[in-house]
Amino acid sequence: MLTVRTIDLGRVPYRDCWEYQQRLFDVLTARRGDASDEAGWLLTVEHPPVYTLGKSGKAQNLLVGEEFLRAKGAEYYHIDRGGDITFHGPGQAVCYPILDLARLGIGLREYIFRLEESVIEVVGRYGIRGARIAGASGVWIVEEGAAPRKICAIGVRASRFVTMHGFALNVSTDLEWFGLINPCGFVDRGVTSIERETGRTVPMDEVKKSIVTVLSEKLDVKIYNK
């Protein structure tokens, strides 16, 4: 069975983590085609408040100026993943799989599908019914008579079948931060968290362990600690 090393970085500034991802990406790209059974890494992390805009995103979906963000203690980066603008911050389980999809034997579309499936199963363990929406990546809460609410954003970059970036699951995130943007470019949809949906506090470590367990099953790899 293929193996993936998981590294929990704790709380790390976004730029530091982005640069670390790139170093791992370069290592994995350089060793493609060797006989190793290692398929890459899974980074889990929380970030201080930061907004990131994907390569095809629209800058106007940031509703305030960068100076205002800095005054509130938040950073802003235009980055190389897919998707539009989103927020990362404390109380959010952010996962960056740096994986060789060729070694896993799956394409990018199937990979994103499996990430979504994994998050749907994780939130389901807390009694939350996650769902997909056609044309909108990520995991949503969809209820009749209410606007859809996003609980997990997904934005991925893949080059030569090696991935970067990943997904961000709102566990106990302060959702007021999303009021400064049109989340993922939408003006008619909301955001939510595990805590908001369940009305109770859920330990972050518990959620991260569930993510690792479910991803291992969905990607058919053994994920182990470094």
Shape verdict: globular
Please report the total strand number as a whole number.
12
What do the pLDDT scores average to?
A: 93
Give the terminus-to-terminus CA distance.
17 Å
Which regions have little confidence, pLDDT < 50, spanning 5+ residues? none
Percentage of β-strand residues: 25-35%
- SS class: alpha/beta
User: Cα-atom Rg, whole angstroms?
Assistant: 17 Å
Give the topology string: H per helix, E per strand.
EHEEHEEEHHEEEEEHHE
Give the biggest sheet.
9 strands, mixed
Helical proportion? 25-40%
Question: Number of DSSP helices?
Answer: 6
Description of the molecule:
- The structure is a single chain.
- This protein has 226 residues and is of the alpha/beta class.
- Strands 1, 2, 6, 7, 8, 9, 10, 11 and 12 form a nine-stranded mixed sheet that branches.
- The longest helix has 17 residues.
- The two termini are 17 Å apart.
Topology record:
Layout: E1 3-11, H1 14-30, E2 38-46, E3 50-53, H2 66-71, E4 75-78, E5 85-88, E6 92-99, H3 101-104, H4 108-124, E7 131-133, E8 136-141, E9 149-159, E10 162-170, E11 190-191, H5 194-198, H6 204-219, E12 222-225
Parallel strand pairs: 1-2, 1-12, 3-4, 9-11
Antiparallel strand pairs: 2-6, 3-5, 6-10, 7-8, 8-9, 9-10
Helix pairs in contact: 4-6
